[in-house]
Design goal:
alpha+beta, 3-stranded antiparallel β-sheet, about 40% strand, lipoprotein
């Protein structure tokens, strides 16, 4: 009987926990500074597949833009390096190095595209203020502004 009474008292006290008697107010927090990243991509004109010069120019323009996006992804996410070296009798037999980049770039804009000799160059710019606003539209960052206990 005594254990049932203690058990009932524990259930009553558990009902008065702090989770039910407080109110949290949240606010969003913006960073103080937003960096602006810039990248330049290049592609050769004469090596592009195409039937005429205009088609080769369009292919080089597209390739230089993709190269600039790759460079932006390297700046944002870093570059993965895989290296493999094999030895035989303490002599290097095979040395391999592979680099890759993976990521999603949102909010970049083309600053300008122009020919440079036999190549085409594209300059991109990524303003992290735009990236922050895109992210806030999807999932706003919040912090506790005020806690009120009852």
């Amino acid at each position: 009987m005594k254990s049932i009474l203690v058990l009932c008292c524990l259930f009553l006290l558990a009902g008065c926990s702090l989770m039910a008697d407080r109110h949290l107010e949240w606010e969003t927090v913006a960073p103080e500074q937003f960096p602006v990243l810039r990248a330049v991509g290049y592609a050769p004109l004469s090596l592009q597949p195409g039937q005429n010069e205009q088609h080769k120019m369009l292919m080089a323009l597209q390739a230089s833009k993709l190269d600039a996006y790759r460079e932006l992804a390297e700046q944002v996410y870093g570059q993965r390096i895989d290296a493999n070296t094999s030895l035989q009798q303490l002599l290097v037999q095979n040395d391999q190095l592979r680099a890759s980049v993976q990521g999603v770039i949102r909010g970049a804009r083309v600053v300008k595209s122009y020919p440079v000799g036999d190549a085409y160059a594209t300059e991109l710019e990524l303003d992290f203020r735009d990236v922050y606003e895109l992210f806030q539209a999807q999932q706003p960052e919040r912090r506790i502004r005020h806690v009120r206990y009852y």
